[in-house]
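Figure 6 in text form: structure in, sequence out.
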């Protein structure tokens, strides 16, 4: 087991000595969540698939603060047979697992007339199948540590996004997974979810007109930030000992609108 040097001293409410596995943790929301948990004293198993340069840069950044505190794991999460070995790598490096953040996700349009079976397999694989079987593989370690699972869901699990039917279906299943895993893994493990609204615009881009239209139907009239997600996740991990099976919408009031 690799014991990180210079670990923060334990203080009430800190995550010192805890270990967090963050999937899709190299950039965007995943990277901000990783920074937040690391700042609170957690050591990281940082999963990535294709974003090797971003993962290396984030590891270097965080280990400048605490040497040996970040493990990088490259994996295609849709390769379900690989997930048991992934968890074994975390255990071999850190000796434990306290927090599983199911953040990795595929997102792209699938208009009904053009949707393919390959898109179905990819979108359900990354958003539903992989998080479920990763939680299954991690369950023994999480039970032993009385740990926490956090799923990144989506407000479109409740209200389908036009032209993104397969993604919306997958996220609806992910939302139910939060509730079912909370029943299956309780009382030792808490399971909760976060549903982002207009936080980071999709990488493939949206027109300014569409962005303005989305924000016009958001009660706060503005986009949020990855930090809003990271702070909510920290609350659920660190401060919400009697909350499980719940999904918090961090959406600026978007779901209040029709």
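Output sequence:
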């Amino acid at each position: 087991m690799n014991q990180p040097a210079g670990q923060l001293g334990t203080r009430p409410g800190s995550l010192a000595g805890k270990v967090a596995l963050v999937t899709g943790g190299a950039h965007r929301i995943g990277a901000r969540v990783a920074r937040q948990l690391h700042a609170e004293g957690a050591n990281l198993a940082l999963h990535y698939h294709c974003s090797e340069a971003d993962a290396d840069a984030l590891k270097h950044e965080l280990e400048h603060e605490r040497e040996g505190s970040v493990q990088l794991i490259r994996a295609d999460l849709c390769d379900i047979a690989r997930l048991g070995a992934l968890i074994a790598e975390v255990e071999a490096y850190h000796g434990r697992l306290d927090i599983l953040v199911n953040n990795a996700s595929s997102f792209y349009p699938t208009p009904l007339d053009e949707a393919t079976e390959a898109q179905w397999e990819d979108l359900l694989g990354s958003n539903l199948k992989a998080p479920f079987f990763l939680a299954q593989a991690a369950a023994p370690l999480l039970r032993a540590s009385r740990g926490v699972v956090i799923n990144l869901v989506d407000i479109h699990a409740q209200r389908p996004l036009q032209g993104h039917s397969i993604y919306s279906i997958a996220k609806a299943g992910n939302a139910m997974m939060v509730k079912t895993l909370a029943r299956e893994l309780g009382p030792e493990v808490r399971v909760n979810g976060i549903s982002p609204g207009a936080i980071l615009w999709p990488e493939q881009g949206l027109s300014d007109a569409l962005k303005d239209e989305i924000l016009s139907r958001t009660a706060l009239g503005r986009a949020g930030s990855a930090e809003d997600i990271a702070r909510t996740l920290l609350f659920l991990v660190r401060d919400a000992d009697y909350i499980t099976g719940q999904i918090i919408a961090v959406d600026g009031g978007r779901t209040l609108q029709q």
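Caption detail: The chain has seven helices and seven strands.
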